[in-house]
Write a structure and sequence with these properties.
The complex is a heterodimer of chains A (about 450) and B (about 70). Chain A is about 35% helix and about 25% strand. With about 450 residues, chain A is α+β, with helices and mostly antiparallel strands. Chain A folds into three domains: about 5-105, Rossmann fold; about 130-200, ATP-grasp fold, A domain (Dna Ligase, domain 1, 2-Layer Sandwich), CATH 3.30.1490.20; about 205-445, ATP-grasp fold, B domain (D-amino Acid Aminotransferase, Chain A, domain 1). In chain A, the strands form five sheets. An eight-stranded antiparallel beta sheet of chain A has the order 13-12-9-10-11-14-19-17, sandwiched between helices. In chain A, strands 3-2-1-4-5 form a five-stranded parallel beta sheet, with helices on both faces. In chain A, strands 7-6-8 form a three-stranded antiparallel beta sheet. In chain A, helix 2 links the parallel strand 2 (about 25-35) and strand 3. Chain B is about 0% helix and about 55% strand. In chain B, the strands form two sheets. A four-stranded antiparallel beta sheet of chain B has the order 1-8-6-3, with no helix packed on it. In chain B, a hairpin with a 2-residue loop joins strand 4 and strand 5. Classes of the chains: A alpha+beta (about 450), B mainly beta (about 70). The interface of A and B includes residues 374, 376, 377 and 379 of A.
C-alpha cells in the first residue's frame, strides 16, 4: 500500500480522499489555492501544500506546480478526485514517469474514453449497445446526409470534454449549419478540440449509469446502477440507487453487460458507464467516465463499500472486493450555491454553515462556516445523501436533512430541492432528463 | 434616457460581444461572464445604442457591477 497520497483536488472530494487515506493508515497531502485556505480538510490532512493563485489554471490544473508538490512532499501516489486533472492522460503519464502512482485507470483508458466517438466505437465493438450516431463530422454536406439517415431531431455533441458543454438539439435540416458552428466553436474554446458528431435525439430519456470496478487483468464487476435523470443544463442535481420503476431483471442485465464490457477491455480501477434509456430494452452507451464520480456516495450507501478506499487498493495492486448486496435505497441531493429565482451562480461568505447530523443522512462538503464561496470553482456546496430501506424513506431522510441544513450568507437551491422531493411526478418514479426543466417552467408559469 | 446594465453574478469577463455605437435589441448579448465554470450572458435590458462598455476580457466583476451603458430609442 502507499505511504503518502497527494490529493490534486479541492472541496468535498479532497476531504473524502483524506478520510479514505485515514481509514487505510496512509498519510495525505492536501494542496490548496489561495481562496481555499480556509477549507476544513486542510486541518484533517496529514500535510498541506499551498498552490498560490486563484484560477484553476494556476492551481488545480497547473501540472508543473502539482508535480513540484509531489516531488517536495515525497508522495508515492496522487489521487486526482473528479474534474480538474482526473481524466488527463498526460498528467497520469507524467506521474508514472516519476514512479508515482496515478490513482485511476491506466492512461490508455483516459485517452480512449476521453474521445466520445472512439469510446462509442469501443462499446459497439465489445458488445454494449449504442444508439444510431455518426463518426466525427467533416463538413456540412456529410453532416446533412448523416442527419437525414439518422432522422431528426438529432443532437450535435462535442467529441471531447463533458458536462454537457456544447450539446445542441437540431430539429430540422434548416438549423443544422448554425448548430454545427455553435457546437464546434464552444468545443474548440472549452476543450481545445472542435470535433463534433451526431447522435439520435431521445425524447424522455432516462440517464442510468453503472458503477464498475476492474482489476486490469480481465476481471470486472458492477456495484449496481445510479439513476441520474434529474438534471438541469446537463448537470446532475439528484441521483439515486436503485433506479426506480424499472424491472430489476432488466437493470441487472444492463449492469452485467456493462461489467462484461469492462472485463473484455481489461479496464482497471473504477469507472462509470453512462447510458440513456429510451424505454424497455431500448438503451445505448452514452460515455464512460474514467474516475470517481461526484455521486459515488449513493453507491456507497447501498453497498457499504468505501469506493475511494477501493480505488486506492486497486491502484496498489490489490484484488477486487467481493460483490456486495444491494441494501435498501439511497438518494443524493446536490446543494448548489445559486440564486433560487434566476439559478445563476451565487457567491459570498458563509456566515452560517451547519450541516445536519441525523440518522440515515450523510453530508459530504468541503466548506465550513466563515469560508468564502468564490467564482473561481464550481458551485457545489454539499451533497446530502439519505439512505433507508425504501425509496420513500430515503427521500424523507434527504428532505429532513435539507430542512435542517442551516446556510446563511450565500443563496442556495435548497428551496428548489425541497419542492422537487415533494413533487408528485418525481415521487412517482417516472423520471426523465427533461423533468427538472419542465418543473421549473411549471413553477415560474 | 441612459440605462446602466448591471451584472447579476460575481465572476470574470470572458468575452465582450458589443461595442460603443452598436444598435442592440432587447436580449442581445453584450458581455459574457464566466463564474463557477458557467458562461453567464449579460443581455441588453432595452433596445437602443451602446454608449459604452465598461469592461474588457479577463476583468474581475462584482455582483451588480455596471458593465455597459445603453441609450434607449425612446
Amino acid at each position: 500500500m502507499f505511504q503518502k497520497v497527494l490529493i490534486a483536488n479541492r472541496g468535498a472530494i479532497a476531504r473524502r480522499v483524506v478520510k479514505a487515506c485515514e481509514a487505510l493508515g496512509i498519510s495525505s497531502v492536501a494542496v490548496y489555492s489561495t481562496p481555499d485556505g480556509g477549507a476544513p480538510h486542510l486541518a484533517e490532512a496529514s500535510e498541506t501544500y499551498p498552490l498560490p493563485g486563484q484560477h484553476a489554471s494556476d492551481t488545480y490544473l497547473n501540472q508543473a506546480a502539482l508535480l513540484a508538490a509531489v516531488d517536495e512532499t515525497g508522495a508515492d501516489a496522487v489521487h486526482p478526485g473528479y474534474g480538474f486533472l482526473a481524466e488527463n492522460a498526460d498528467f497520469a503519464d507524467a506521474l508514472e514517469a516519476r514512479g508515482v502512482c496515478f490513482v485511476g485507470p491506466n492512461s490508455k483508458w483516459l485517452r480512449a474514453m476521453g474521445d466520445k466517438v472512439a469510446a462509442r466505437e469501443l462499446a459497439e465493438r465489445h458488445g454494449f449497445p449504442v444508439f444510431v450516431g455518426s463518426p466525427r463530422l467533416e463538413g456540412l454536406d456529410q453532416a446533412r446526409q448523416l442527419a437525414d439517415v439518422i432522422g431528426y431531431p438529432i443532437m450535435i455533441k462535442p467529441s471531447a470534454g463533458g458536462g454537457g458543454i456544447g450539446i445542441r438539439m437540431v430539429n430540422g435540416p434548416a438549423d443544422l449549419e448554425a448548430a454545427m458552428g455553435q457546437a464546434r466553436g464552444l468545443a474548440e474554446r472549452s476543450f481545445g478540440d472542435g470535433g463534433i458528431f451526431i447522435e439520435r435525439w431521445i425524447e424522455r430519456a432516462r440517464h442510468i449509469e453503472f458503477q464498475l470496478l476492474g482489476d486490469g487483468g480481465g476481471r470486472a464487476l458492477h456495484v449496481f446502477e445510479r439513476e441520474c435523470s434529474i438534471q438541469r443544463r446537463h448537470q446532475k442535481v439528484i441521483e439515486e440507487s436503485p433506479a426506480p420503476g424499472i424491472d430489476r431483471d432488466e437493470v441487472l442485465a444492463m449492469a452485467d453487460q456493462a461489467a462484461a464490457f469492462a472485463a473484455r477491455l481489461g479496464y482497471d480501477n473504477v469507472g462509470t458507464l453512462e447510458t440513456l434509456r429510451a424505454g424497455p430494452a431500448d438503451y445505448g452507451f452514452l460515455e464512460m467516465n474514467t474516475r470517481i464520480q461526484v455521486e459515488h456516495g449513493v453507491t456507497e450507501a447501498v453497498t457499504g463499500l468505501d469506493l475511494v478506499a477501493v480505488q486506492l487498493r486497486l491502484a496498489a495492486g490489490e484484488p477486487l472486493p467481493p460483490p456486495p448486496c444491494l441494501d435498501g435505497h439511497a438518494l443524493e441531493a446536490r446543494v448548489y450555491a445559486e440564486h433560487p429565482r434566476t439559478q445563476l451562480p451565487a457567491t459570498g461568505r458563509l456566515s452560517v454553515f451547519r450541516p445536519p447530523d441525523l440518522y440515515g443522512v450523510r453530508v459530504d462538503t468541503g466548506y465550513q462556516v466563515g469560508q468564502w464561496v468564490t467564482p473561481f470553482y464550481d458551485p457545489l456546496l454539499a451533497k446530502v445523501i439519505g439512505h433507508g430501506t425504501t425509496r420513500e424513506q430515503a427521500i424523507g431522510r434527504v428532505l429532513v436533512g435539507l430542512k435542517a441544513f442551516e446556510i446563511q450568507g450565500v443563496h442556495t437551491n435548497i428551496p428548489l430541492l425541497i419542492e422537487v422531493l415533494q413533487d408528485g411526478e418525481f415521487l412517482s418514479g417516472r423520471l426523465d432528463t427533461g423533468y427538472l426543466t419542465r418543473f421549473l417552467v411549471k413553477q415560474s408559469g | 434616457m441612459q440605462h446602466e446594465v448591471e451584472t447579476e453574478v460575481q465572476g470574470s469577463v470572458w468575452k465582450v460581444e458589443a461595442a460603443a455605437g452598436d444598435e442592440v435589441a432587447v436580449g442581445d448579448v453584450l458581455v459574457i461572464l464566466e463564474s463557477m465554470k458557467m458562461e453567464i450572458p449579460v443581455e441588453a435590458p432595452v433596445a437602443g445604442t451602446v454608449v459604452e462598455i465598461r469592461v474588457k476580457p479577463q476583468d474581475a466583476v462584482e455582483e451588480d457591477a455596471i458593465v455597459a451603458v445603453i441609450e434607449d430609442n425612446g
